[in-house]
Structure formats: C-alpha cells, structure tokens
Write a structure and sequence with these properties.
By secondary structure, this protein is α/β, with parallel strands linked by helices. 24% of the residues lie in helices and 18% in strands. Among the domains are: 156 residues, Leucine-rich repeat, LRR (right-handed beta-alpha superhelix) (Alpha-Beta Horseshoe), CATH 3.80.10; 160 residues, Ribonuclease Inhibitor (Leucine-rich repeat, LRR (right-handed beta-alpha superhelix)); 147 residues, Rossmann fold (3-Layer(aba) Sandwich). The strands form seven sheets. The chain has a 23-stranded mixed beta sheet, with no helix packed on it. The protein has a five-stranded parallel beta sheet with strand order 37-36-38-39-40, sandwiched between helices. α6 links the parallel β19 and β20. It starts with a helix and ends with a helix. The protein binds 2-acetamido-2-deoxy-beta-D-glucopyranose (NAG) (8 copies). One 2-acetamido-2-deoxy-beta-D-glucopyranose binds next to loops.
C-alpha cells in the first residue's frame, strides 16, 4: 500500500514536471521558459513570482485576457512571438510593472487586436517588436495604440507598401532605432517619414523592396547615425545613393547598402556624381557588398568631400573589373583602415576575363611594382578576385607599415615568383590557390611579424621542392599558424619549420599525400594542433608515437591531432600503434576510432581492432609461423628441385664447366681443330686391360703409329679423374669405348660416354667408336648410347678379343678400326 502511494506520488510528480516551465537562474535573472508547450492560456501558477525573463513563445494563446500576468511585476523581458495571438483584452499587460522588452512578432495581430490603452500599463517599454503580423490586411500601422510608449527606443515592425506612417509615431519621443523588416514598401517619397521628424532616431534598418527613392526621403531623420538599406534586390546602388543627398555633411557611423541589386545580367556603373552623395557624408563605414557593381568611375574617390572620415570600405562580392584609376585613388582615403574588395564575381555579359593559358614566358621578366596604400590601412581583403591570369611580380608596398592582415586567398596568381616587401608588420597572409609551382623562396620572407599563413591548394609540393635550403619560412619566428592543406605534399624539407620551433602552435597538413608523420616533432615547444586528415598514413612507428607523447606533456595536455580519412591499417605491423591510439593522452579526433584496413582484408575500425586485439595478436603469431614455415618449405622444395636438376644434368654441367675452365687455361690455345694430342682416347674397363694394352695398342701404336690415350698409362697423377677424363676426351681425335658387361656396370662408363657425347654435340663430329668386346643385348645398352647410335661407329670384336696372344692384324676388324680412327 505504502509503495502504491509512493508510486502514485512519483507518477504525478513526473507529470507535473513535464508540464512545467523550465526555470534557470543566473546572478541577475530568473528565466522561466514556457516556450513551445502548446499552451492555450498563460500558466500563471507555474511561473515563479520573481521571474525576470519569461518565454511564452511558440504556444497557442489566441486570446490574452485581463490580468494574464498578474503578480509578475519583476518581469522585464517577455517573449510572446509565434503564439497565435489574435486579441488582447485592454488589461492584458497590467501588472507587468517592470516590462521593458516585448516581442509580439509573428502572431495574428491586426489593428483591432490592440485596444487603445493596451500599452498604458507598460509605458516603460523600451523595445517592441510587432513585425510579421496582420497589419498588412488593413494597410494601417497601429500608431494610435503605440503613442503611450514614450520610452520606446526600438521599434521593429513590417513595412507596408502604400500605408501611411500616422501621427501616432510623433509621440515616440525616445525612439532611436526603427527597423522595417520585413518590408514591402516599393518607393520612398519625400513625405514618407514626416511623422518621424524631430525624433532622436539614430539607427534605421530597412529590409524593403525599394525600386525608387526620392532624394529628400530621409530628411526627417535629423540625428541618424547608422543607415542600413539592405536586401532590396531591385534597385541599383547608383539610384539608391541619391537618398543620401539629404544627409549631406552629417557625421555617421555606418551606411550599409548591401544586396540591393541582384539580377542575372545587369551591372551597375557608379558615376563619380552618384558617388559624391556618399562622399558628402562624413561616414566611418560604408558597405556596398553584393550589388553587381561593375565600375566605380575613376575620380569618384578624389571627388569625395569627406575622404578623411571613411575607415572601413566594403565593396566585396560585386563585379568590379574597372576602373583601374579608382584603385589608384584609394590611397587618398587617409584614415581607411579596412578595405574589402574580395570576391568580384564576374557574371553575365561582363564575363570578359580572357582565359589565357598561362604562358611560362611570363615568369621570365620579373616586373617590379610599387603600390601606394592608404596610410592607415590595417586590413586588406582581396580574396577571390577573378583577375586576369597573371604571375606574381615583385611588389613593394608603400605606407604599408600598419597593415596586419592581407587576404589574397583564391585570387589565382599563376606563379609565386615575386618578392613582396613593405608589409613589415603583417600578421596574417592568405595565399591559398596561388599556383606556386614556381616559387620564389623569398616571397614572404620580409614578413618578420607574420603569425598566420594560409596557403591551401597552392601546389607547394612542386614549389618547395626547389627550396632545398629551406628559405621559404626562414626567419619567420612569430609564425603560429600554418595552413598547407591540399598541396599534394609527400614530404617536407626537415629544415622547413626550423624557425618556428618556438612559435608554431597549429599546423594544418590535411588533404596531402603524406604516408608517415611529416616532420620531426622533438624541437617544438608549443605545437598544439596538428591536422593530418585525408593523407595516406598507414601507421606511426614507435619513435613517432613516443615523440608525440613527449610533445603532449610539453604542451601540458593541449595537443590535438586529427587523423581521420587516412589509409590506416589494422594488421600485425600496427598492433602497437592501435594500442597507442587509445592509450595516449593526446586528443585525437573520433577518440582514436578510425576506419582501417583489417588483417583479413575487410574494412574495420581501430576501435574494433582494439576490442579484438588479443585475437589479432594470436592471428599475427600464427601468421608469423605460417609465413615462416611456408618460406622454409618453399626453400626446401627449391633446393631439392635444383639438386635434382643438377644431379640429372651433372655430367652436362660438369662438361660445360670444364670446357669453360679449359678456355681460360693458357694451353687452351692449343689448336683444337688440327692437332690433337692423341688420335684416340680409349675408355675401357679394367677387365679388358690385357686386350687393350696388348693387341689394340700394339696394332694402333706399333703398326699404325697412332697415339692412344689410356688411363692406366697417360692420366696425370694427382689430377682428379674427371679432369683427366675431360682432358683426355678433349685432346683426342676420337673416343673409343671398349664395351663389355663390366664396362657398362662401372661408374665411369656412363661418365665417359656422356663426356664424349657432349663433345660430339659441341663439335658436331662423329668421334665415338664403340668396340663391342662381348655380345650385349640392345636392352642392356645405356640409353644415352642408344640415342646416338646412328652417329656411332660400332665394331664388333668378340672373336678377336679371345685370340689376344696371336693377333691377326690383317683381319677386317682391324682395318675398319683404323679407318674409323683416321677419318
Ligand atoms: C524562447 O523560446 C523559443 C522557442 O523555444 C526559443 O527559440 C527562443 O530562443 C527563446 N528565447 C529566449 C530569449 O530564450
Ligand atoms: C478587462 O478590464 C477592463 C478594465 O481594466 C474592463 O473594462 C474590461 O471589461 C475587462 N474585460 C473583461 C473581459 O473582463
Ligand atoms: C524631394 O525633396 C528634394 C529635396 O530634398 C527635392 O529636390 C525634390 O524635388 C523633392 N521631390 C518631390 C517629388 O517633392
Ligand atoms: C561632425 O563631427 C565633427 C567633429 O567630430 C564636428 O566638428 C562636426 O560639427 C560634426 N558635424 C555634424 C553635422 O554634426
Ligand atoms: C579556362 O581554360 C581551361 C583549359 O584551358 C578550362 O578547363 C577552363 O574551364 C576555362 N575556364 C573558363 C572560365 O572558361
Ligand atoms: C575576406 O573575404 C572573404 C570573401 O568575401 C571572406 O570569406 C573572408 O572571411 C574575408 N576575410 C576577413 C578577415 O573578413
Ligand atoms: C602557445 O600558443 C598559444 C596560442 O597561440 C598562446 O596563447 C600561448 O601563449 C603560447 N604559449 C607559449 C609558451 O608560447
Ligand atoms: C567507431 O566508429 C564506428 C564507425 O564510425 C562506430 O560504428 C563504432 O561504434 C565506433 N566505436 C567506438 C568504440 O566508438
């Protein structure tokens, strides 16, 4: 039972919490946020009495009744926008004694929704926003009900085309800002704002649809300081400037005429006369951004009455391609500090810039310019200009000593073969998008105070290759931030960053081609941010990770490194690296969790690899043994293979070896062709010794005077038998094999046979004479002999061998033998 009660209490508590407005307290304010809760009435009981800021926006209030805010006397700020309010009762705001700020925009309020006297209880109101309601329907401003607001300083409402600013506005005697946003007014006439005459209005913000303005339209605003007419899209600046004629000789802080002319094809030419309306006002800041201005006529600046007022001039995002003279006049603006003419987008028919392909000749004549800057200039933004393709020249800026910021990013100079001087105090230089394939290493070396260098996508990989002595950044000892992203870099000159060991804080090398950590880290004192995203890094070795950890402790835990989108590998080689990713105190993007090529060829993440690190380690160990054993087996197979080949062709190999060796011996010159040392080498088995050394020798040597080589007699003692056999065969005209069964069985038989065979092939001569001294069936003959049988002179001698003591040398056998030796 107890528990059920508790549960019930808990549930009801939760429910009431869900409906509750969110209370936040700061030192000075208590904010009650009841926004976007689909409330139909104001939940007075849930709003703390001491609330100072009340947010009721985004509800469905429809009707705000008498005393809706009873007791909320501390609320100074009330948000009621977008709450579908259609009607207020006259006492709706009573009780809001401290209210100074109310936002009623984007409701369904029309003139009748606001009963006269509605604002009387909150007459201390300083800020009122009633824009985007339904006043448009009756084409009337609710000026009568507003006239109680004598303390109102800022009024924001929608401008209604054709409606008249009524007399009620005259009572807003504290009004200093009038915002018409949104505003459908097409035309400003001399009498449009007469009701505001004499009010202390300083700021005007018109986001209207002006097509036409009369010159005296702003005359009633006698104290105006800041004028913004923006977003008209329909009126050329040259037509709009005339509205300044009634502000002549005023001291103003800002004239903002941005985005007033947008059309596909049109361009605006501002004559020096039109420009003189601007020049007639002593204004500190002029913004003419995004108006399709094509030309500001030469002489415009010279004709300005107040050249010594303008401090900031922004003509960015136009189509200015001329007039060159105007650029040369700029230096006359004696107090100009900020000049922004970035992003001149050439549209439509004015796309006249010639697409000249870069001519390498251009780089040869290095021009030198001297450019006068406005003497107070501090910041120059000339980024994104569609200039005629041109190489950088040597430029010397005069009066550039105050310049701290030069942004020429994405203004595509076709080379970097120039030296820029005269900007000794420059702190920021942007040269992204230059084509620095040709780079003068001293290009920026005069910027001794440079702190930030942006050079993205500038082909530095090629340009820096020639800077072998690392001059490019030498001496820039204050450089803190370097951005070399997207330069195709594969490596950096180890000396490149030497001058920045103490100063470098942040380096962006993303979108390059590095496959390892690109530079030595050990010397840096304050390097805290390294971006290596989108390179080709596989892993870092242990030295790099140790160095990085050292750096991390040097910069006291502030080191951040980005490594996403590399070619990281989660394999056996990177085990230590993967562990390091999650162990290091360096702040890595993704917390060290990157995609990586896994050991099995799939795509995984480093977090996955870490989770499975034990298995991975095991796999790597087995892989190691697998690889080792495979290698060993392979080696063994190769050895066996080679051995068997060698064994099979051992005699052939040996023969060739001996041939070659013989060539290199001195006596190899002994003529092979004509004079053999022996007429024949007789190869025989010891069993036939008697016959060979008896009848055979006495016939061939005694009778016929031939010389024979017999191993028993002629082989050199001390030489190897193989050498002897080879020499004997080489030096004999013929080789006689005395073939008996025992000869065929002997070890040397085949050897001698093969040697003879090799020589036959080599010299293409029939040198082999076989004497069969026994009957031997063909199948018992050595295969190698059978293969060459046709080229062998075969003589059978069985009968003659037996009669060894009384040889009949007249016999046919001896004749044939003799014949075959001498032919
Ligand atoms: C009031 O609430 C709306 C809707 O939640 C919110 O957009 C707005 O920022 C809030 N205003 C303030 C000042 O907190
Ligand atoms: C609201 O209060 C006013 C007086 O402050 C009164 O005249 C009016 O009748 C009241 N409206 C309603 C609906 O109570
Ligand atoms: C508007 O006022 C200017 C002087 O401020 C005057 O020259 C011009 O004629 C006036 N235009 C009309 C239509 O009254
Ligand atoms: C503008 O300011 C200058 C000096 O700050 C002052 O001398 C001059 O009177 C001012 N002009 C107007 C119209 O207020
Ligand atoms: C300029 O020429 C190059 C090739 O020569 C071409 O790729 C490029 O699109 C051209 N640019 C313009 C703006 O015509
Ligand atoms: C310079 O101009 C470009 C383009 O208009 C802009 O993106 C950049 O932020 C500007 N630089 C500064 C410092 O305002
Ligand atoms: C390190 O660099 C940061 C950021 O540029 C800077 O605020 C800090 O003073 C530097 N520290 C040292 C010791 O130079
Ligand atoms: C690592 O990143 C992948 C993909 O981005 C994600 O699915 C996974 O949950 C992350 N793992 C951890 C531990 O954060």
């Amino acid at each position: 039972m107890k528990y059920i009660v508790l549960l019930f209490l808990f549930v009801s508590f939760k429910c009431s919490l869900a409906n509750h407005c969110k209370i936040t307290r700061t030192k000075t304010d208590i904010t009650c946020d009841c926004s976007s809760k689909n409330l139909r009435r104001i939940p007075l009981r849930k709003i703390p009495r001491e609330t100072t800021i009340l947010n009721l926006s985004g509800n469905s209030l429809t009707l705000v009744t008498n005393n809706s805010f009873e007791g909320l006397g501390k609320v100074h700020t009330l948000y009621l926008q977008s709450s579908k309010i259609t009607l207020f009762e006259v006492g709706a705001f009573s009780g809001l004694d401290s209210l100074t700020y109310i936002d009623l925009s984007s409701n369904f309020i029309e003139k009748e929704s606001l009963p006269p006297g509605l604002f009387r209880p909150i007459s201390k109101l300083q800020y009122l926003n009633i824009a985007s309601n339904l006043f448009l329907i009756s084409k009337e401003y609710p000026d009568r009900v507003l006239q109680d607001l004598t303390h109102l300083q800022t009024l924001s409402m929608s401008g209604i085309n054709g409606a008249v600013f009524g007399n009620g506005f005259k009572y807003l005697t504290s009004l200093n800002s009038l915002n018409l946003d949104p505003c459908s007014i097409n035309e400003l006439q001399n009498d449009t704002f007469v009701s505001f005459k004499g009010l202390p209005i300083l700021n005007l913000n018109f986001i209207c649809r002006f097509k036409k303005v009369q010159p005296g339209a702003l005359a009633p605003f006698q104290s105006i300081s800041s004028l913004a007419i923006v977003g008209s899209e329909l009126i050329r600046i040259s037509d709009l400037l005339v509205v300044l004629s009634s502000l002549r000789d005023r001291n103003m802080s800002l004239i903002d005429f941005s985005s007033n002319y947008r059309s596909r094809t049109g361009a605006d030419i501002i004559s020096s006369e039109a420009f003189s309306y601007l020049g007639g006002v002593c204004v500190k800041e002029v913004i003419l951004r995004r108006n399709q201005i094509g030309i500001i006529q030469g002489g415009s600046i010279s004709r300005m009455k107040y050249k010594n007022c303008l401090q900031k001039f922004d003509v960015s995002q136009n189509n200015i391609y001329g007039d060159y003279q105007t650029a040369l006049e700029i230096f006359k603006l004696s107090v100009l500090k900020v000049l922004d003419f970035s992003k001149q987008e050439i549209l439509g028919p004015y796309k006249k810039i010639k697409n000249e392909s870069f001519n390498s000749e251009d780089s040869k004549y290095s021009l030198s310019y001297s450019v006068d800057l406005p003497p107070s200039l501090e910041r120059l933004n000339a980024s994104g200009l569609s200039i005629k393709l041109s190489p950088l020249a040597n430029v010397n800026f005069k009066f550039g000593s105050h310049v701290v910021y030069v942004d020429v990013n994405w203004t595509p100079f076709t080379n970097c073969d120039g030296v820029i001087t005269g900007l000794d105090n420059l702190q920021f230089f942007g040269m992204s998008g230059f084509n620095c394939k040709i780079l003068n290493p001293k290009m920026i070396s005069s910027f001794k105070n440079l702190q930030e260098l942006q050079s993205r996508n500038a082909n530095l990989n090629i340009g820096l290759q020639h800077d072998v002595n690392a001059i490019f950044l030498k001496g820039l000892e204050k450089l803190r931030i370097i951005d070399f992203a997207g330069n195709g870099l594969e490596n950096l000159n180890p000396e490149l960053l030497r001058s920045q060991y103490n100063s470098l804080y942040s380096v962006d090398l993303s979108n390059n081609n590095f496959d390892d950590f690109p530079f030595q880290i050990t010397e840096f004192k304050n390097l805290s941010y390294i971006n290596l995203e989108n390179n080709k890094i596989i892993d870092f070795d242990e030295k790099v990770t140790n160095d990085l950890d050292d750096l991390e402790s040097r910069v006291k835990g502030h080191l951040k490194i980005r490594l996403d989108r590399n070619l990281l590998q989660c394999n056996c080689k990177s085990l230590i690296f993967i562990k390091w990713l999650f162990k290091t105190k360096i702040q890595l993007d993704n917390g060290g969790n990157y995609s990586c090529g896994y050991i099995d060829g799939s795509k995984k993440t480093t977090a996955y690899a870490l989770k499975n690190i034990d298995e991975l380690t095991k796999q790597c160990a087995s892989k190691f043994w697998l690889i080792t054993s495979v290698c060993l087996t392979l080696l063994l197979i190769i050895i066996i293979f080679i051995s068997s080949i060698v064994y099979k062709y051992r005699i052939t190999l040996q023969y060739w070896y001996l041939v070659i060796r013989r060539r290199y011996k001195i006596y190899s010159k002994l003529d092979e062709q004509s004079d053999y040392k022996y007429s024949a080498f007789v190869a025989y088995h010891h069993d036939n010794y008697r016959w060979v050394c008896g009848p055979l020798t006495s016939f061939l040597e005694g009778e016929k005077k031939l010389s024979l080589c017999l191993h028993d007699r002629d082989f050199a003692l001390g030489s190897l038998i193989v050498d002897n056999i080879f020499e004997a065969i080489s030096q004999s005209k013929k080789v006689i094999l005395i073939v008996s069964k025992s000869f065929l069985k002997s070890t040397w038989c085949e050897y001698e046979l093969d040697m003879a065979r090799m020589r036959m092939f080599r010299e293409n001569k029939d040198i082999l004479i076989v004497i069969l001294v026994e009957k031997i069936p063909p199948e018992d003959m050595p295969k190698s002999l059978l293969r060459i049988w046709n080229n062998v002179t075969c003589i059978e001698a069985e009968e003659y061998v037996s009669e060894e003591n009384t040889p009949q040398f007249q016999h046919l056998f001896w004749k044939r033998l003799y014949q075959s030796i001498i032919t």
